[in-house]
Amino acid sequence: MPTFPNPPKLYLNENLSARLVTQLRRYDFDVTSAREEGLLAADDRRQMEHAVSHQRAIVSFNFDDFTALHEQYRAEGREHWGIILSTEESIGTLVHRLLRLLNSVSADELKNQICWLNEFK
């Protein structure tokens, strides 16, 4: 059971391993992935739209595209549930950092924000 109230729900884009979903679910976090949602071939805009429509923060290694999408959403006055960006790391490191984030940031705090996962060491 999550120890922090109202943790973000996560959507992992196609670059992240399905093992991350399994690991985070072991701690009862609400996580899904592009693979599970049948969106492996979808472009980043479609990935973002899917995350937004399900009130999920998207997790990706793709800094350039998701930073641009964040700026576009801001310019258009549209809301999103957060963008969590990371450098490519081992599964263990990503699980550790995502657990730290999920246990310290609420869904409301992450809304319309870009979060750098590397800050959660």
Can you tell me about this structure?
The protein is an alpha/beta fold. It has one domain: Rossmann fold (3-Layer(aba) Sandwich), CATH 3.40.50. It has 5 helices and 5 strands. A 5-stranded parallel β-sheet has the order 2-1-3-4-5, sandwiched between helices. Strand 1, helix 1 and strand 2 form a beta-alpha-beta unit. Helix 1 packs across helix 4. The relative contact order is 0.22.
Layout: helices, strands, pairs:
Blueprint (H helix, E strand, L loop, with lengths): L9 E3 L5 H8 L5 E3 L10 H10 L3 E4 L2 H13 L7 E3 L5 H12 L4 H4 L3 E3 L5
Parallel strand pairs: 1-2, 1-3, 3-4, 4-5
Helix pairs in contact: 1-4
Sequence of strands across the biggest β-sheet: 2-1-3-4-5
Q: How confident overall, as mean pLDDT?
A: 94
Low-confidence stretches: none
Q: Tell me the series of helices and strands, N- to C-terminal.
A: EHEHEHEHHE
C-alpha Rg (nearest Å): 13 Å
**The biggest beta sheet, please?**
5 strands, parallel
What is the number of helical segments per DSSP (H or I, 4+ residues)?
Answer: 5
- The overall number of domains is 1
Span of the ends, CA to CA: 22 Å
Helix content: 25-40%
